Amino acid sequence: MTHPSGKKTGYKIDTIYTILIGFFITLICGIMLYPFLFTISASISNPDAVVRNQVTFFPKGPVNLEAYKILFKNNRIWSGYANTIFYTVFGTLINLIITILAAYPMSRQRFNGYKFINIFVSITMFISATGMMIPLFLVVKSLHLLDTRFAILIVFAAFPYYIILLRSFFQGLPEQMFEAARLDGASEFTILVKIVLPLSGAALATIGLYYGINRWNGYFWAMIFLRDEAKHPLQVVLRELIVLASMGEEMDANLSRSATNAEAIKYGAIVLATLPIAIIYPFIQKYFVKGATLGSVKG
Amino acid sequence: MIKRNKKKYELVDHKALWIMLIPVLIYFILFKYLPMAGVVIAFQRYSPFKGVLASDWVGLEYFRQFFSSIYFTRVLRNTLMIGLFDLLFGFPFPIILALLLNGLSNRHFKKLTQTITLLPHFVSFVVVAGIAINMLSPSTGVINALRLKLGLDSIYFLQEPKYFWGIFTVIKIIKESGFTAIIYLAALTTIDPTLYEAAICDGANRAQQLKYVTFPALIPTIVIMFIIKIGKIISISFEQILLLQNDVILSTSEVISTLVYRRGLVNADYSYATAVGLFETFVALVLVLSSNAIVRRIKNDSSLW
Question: Do the chains contact at B21 and A281, CB–CB below 8 Å?
């Protein structure tokens, strides 16, 4: 089996193999990046070139920031941004607090409510979002929470899946440590704040980032719960601007001085909404990779 | 002996833990369990003025209405076909991507490509749908510009029912493959490096290493992911479909969840929509529980692999 000739073909195959992998990976990355590149290019090109389909890869004509100038002057974009930052910061905070408060008792096997609370939380994981859509809306309505910012923060205060992830992480911490602290007279709350949380930095960062991204990207329930445009998050504004493409009267007056500008504005709005995520993404990527495998380890 | 018992008792402060759980219990009761109980309105002619307690009971009336309407076969077919497309095309792609990424030897290039393929997962579906709608547009879309250059007709992709399943599947593949690939990449890192050394000693080239070492090692993960995916086949996110949908292509794009949205939240037909949602919940539950049971059996039977 070790003919010199055989080995040689083996090397040749290896070279072809390496080239093929490089080719396909570059192709895939190109397909995934292209829509973003195109969107950025279209947002800073000459609007006429965009409408006439002359932009394919790179910006056409001198850099044109007209779309951004119009967007920066638009109140709905700014209020959308401010609302999204508000919902993301406080929403994620509430998410983490509820998740920690649930996960800690759920991780203490000697706790007399251990079995109850674990079943109580796990059951809700199996109920489909579609089935709950109408009843949840009616509950929010009957609690008089419709059209309040509070509804956005509180209705999705925790995802059972992340609670269970954090519980599994807490259970991985050495049990004797808690017991030693208890014997030294530490209260459960002290143990949680002084011992458990400082040891859970990476897990909390991962879960917090997932909640944060969810908050930043969510549009559906904000669209359902909020009538008042002043409370709309950026994604709802964006949906009206680019997906429905039917701008409100106020929009027409402020935004589209011409139909050609309207095209560039759509692309500019997409860039503005995605920019914050694109900027912080490379720094937080490792936590996401961790998060994706967290669930599969425990099964 | 007594002392030890006392110590054991104090290892957990039950009262403190229950106090910690108060906000959690309130949250779950209000926004998880109350809506679960609220599905009873599927069996009522629910009127917002009378409330759940005073509305008339109609039994299975709304289920009968749904099953005998043209919507039933339509949304069931669309839901299953979109799920099936995702299974046939969306399932293999992350595996191929993970194998390609794993085959890269340059560490910096590997990291860069993983960053790029993961990026679309974190972009909101509103943005993804917005970009897709623009790129597929007949007047200003890049894809139709390319078709015109090649001498083909321009197509209004999102106004033609026959393209919807394909378009949705392609968008999902581009958006989610990089993220799903992480799970396969994690499985690949657990392969014992000595297996590769042994294969190389036996004269295996890289294609043969892939066939005889890498791929067999991935099979357990592939089987489990496949079963999990079948378990979720009818749970198509309304948030995603809704953004690409329009009235002209409802015949192929209306799925169970968007029907619930349209009848319930747009038309305020609460009882009917809840009945449709309850039907979905029931089927989804049966699928998920069976797939979970199968996965558990496979994991316990790990001697198989």
Answer: no
Give A134's contacts in chain B (Cβ within 8 Å).
38, 41, 260, 264-265, 270, 273-274, 277
For residue range A51-69, list pLDDT tens digits in order. Answer: 777 777 777 777 778 788 8
For residues B162 and B92, membership in a common domain is answered with: yes
Cα distance between residue A146 and residue A139, in whole Å: 10
ipTM above threshold 0.85: yes
Condensed to tens digits (0 to 9), the pLDDT of residues B151-163 reads 888 888 888 899 9
Q: What is the spatial distance between Cα A89 and Cα A247, in angstroms, rounded to a whole number?
A: 28
Pick from A1, A134, A281: CB nearest B203: A1
Tell me if A158 and B100 make a contact (CB, 8 A cut-off).
no
**Among candidate residues B89, B205, B29, the one with its CA nearest the CA of residue A13:** B205
Name every chain A residue with its beta carbon within 8 A of the beta carbon of B126.
217, 219, 235, 238-239, 242-243, 273
Task: Count other C-beta atoms under 10 Å from residue B254's C-beta.
Answer: 20
pLDDT of B54 reads 85
Q: Please, which residues have CB within 8 angstroms of residue A42's CB and are 6 or more apart in sequence?
A: A50, A55, A263, A264, A267, B134
Q: What is the CATH number of the domain that holds B296?
A: 1.10.3720.10
| Nearest CB to B186 within list A142, A278, A293 | A293
CB-CB under 8 Å, A263 with B203: no
Residues A153-190 pLDDT 10s: 999 999 999 999 999 999 998 888 888 888 888 899 99
- Domain count of chain B? 2
Give phi and psi for B57, each to the nearest 5: -85, 135
Domain encompassing residue B183: 66-304
Bridge partner residues of B57 (DSSP)? B44
- On whether both B160 and B13 belong to a single domain, the answer is no
